[in-house]
Request: fold
Amino acid sequence: MAFSDTLDTSKKATALRNSARRKRSQAQFIRWLLLFAGGIAMIMPIVFMLSTSFKYPFEVYNLNLIPEEPTIENYTYVLEDGRFFGWFTNSLFIATITTICNVLFDSLVGYVLCKYTFPGRYIIFIAILSTLMIPTEMLVIPWYLMSSAFGWLDTYWGIMFPGLMTAFGTFLMKQFFETVPDDFLEAARIDGLNELQIWWTVAMPLVRPALAALAIFVFLGNWTAFIWPLIVTNSQEMYTLPVGLTTFSVEAQVEWELIMTGAAISTIPTLIVFLVFQRYIIRGVVMAGLKG
Amino acid sequence: MGIYKRLSISQKQIVWAWGLLAIPIVFYVVVRFYPTANAILLSFQEWNLLGSRNWTGFDNYVKLFSDPTFWKVFGNTFLYLILGTPSSLLLAFVIAFHLDKLRFMHGTIRALYFLPFMTSAVAMAWVWRWFYQPVPIGVFNNTLATFGIPQIPFLNSTTFALPSILAPAIWAGLGFQVIIFMAGLRAIPQTYYEAARIDGISAWETLTEITIPLLKPTIVFLVVFSSIGFLRIFDQVFNMTTNDPGGPLNSTKPLVLMIYDTAFNSFDMGYAAAQTVVLFTVLLVVSLLQLRVMRDK
Reply:
């Protein structure tokens, strides 16, 4: 009697546990479904942009995602226009040079501020950090005046010079150099390396993930930068991709398939970069976000 | 070289430090500090780029604060902030909270949410602008029409235009916030949750008593970061209202667009500089206020 009783309760407990588990897995499934649907909704603008760029004008107002008659005519039209190629290479050049400069200078300044003791270190650190509070929009007018005085308007240098170093990058790199043990640097010093060699061959390789994070942020920022290139460029040959896209879209007016093609051309490179380096990019964003 | 060799180690360090910092210091002085001073100086002057810079005292500020357009623009700028920051943070938190509990296809779903962050604001402004067009062009109104719901005049209405422009800005930034929230959630030690389970604390109480308080540094960072972003909104507005910048009837015009117009269409440099000083002050006050309020809580 007593024995069957315990058997009964243990059976009940198993049943209860099973139903709880089923409920939990049901909840988990609903959670998955909603998040997945939300994720699909998130990429819909990008999907629509890509799909429309492969459509003929007559199909543009259909909501179907896969064109009935796919065409690359929009791309040939946009590329034959010729300007997009120039804007693309301008943006690529500017974003690449700026990224290299930031990676070098921000890490150098961050390294010096982190690893050297010298009078004025604290003041310089605070001074650089304080520039984080100054918005770009406050500086565009003086930058414009400076560029026009020195003849930098409508040049690559004019577009690039304000972003060659950033306080954000310097601060980020300083944080990461804190993790490099001083003993390593001291050992290199005893081995007879000079200070520049120590920075480049000993310290830099140890903060490679941070450098990657910085590079991603700077490149993306410059690839999509709009207000300063809009101000500093006059001739269409000097436009960057976002500025060119604005001009092109205003001209195209209601030809949305062409506008979507232009938008796709300026978006596809960063999307490819993301799909290839997804893991590193997300880790980099977290690093930059939490430490920067 | 002889002098360098005679220096002590710490003296050599000083020489190296200042040597390596020389170029960056010049850069920060010339490209950051001097322009900042110049902008402030210019805000007390009158200049149309051609003549001479004339000292006018506080005239630009007086003119600005008595300009009804400025107050309209000022209100819009705060509307972007007040609508944008809470809604994007709430959305991002809900997504991150649930996504954190998922294992199946976790990486893929995370990537879907993050993808818009990699797009350019200008390109996406045009995509969204297309979405907002009336029937038969725009995706949204076409969808509404299929279900027999009345049309929404998204960008053509003074009430709907501002939220319509804000939507792509929230959309693009959401993935970043989700990623940061998830990193914050991961950083909370599991032992807290185990203790809560043993004490029989409800899921809601676990959320409000453990998760949110421990996420505070993350929340503070995201609030300040996204607020600064919304207060500086420009790319979306400029590209979605090219036929009437900041329109209809200035209902979407943010401060940065007003600055751009004043400086590079009217060439009223002193007046524009005064507006940038106001923007700077607003950003400073809002971030300091948020830091103060959130730290105290």
About this structure: Chain B touches chain A through 90 residues (CB under 8 Å). The domain at 64-295 of chain B is CATH 1.10.3720.10 (MetI-like fold). Strands of chain B lie at 45-46, 54-55. The mean pLDDT of chain B is 90.
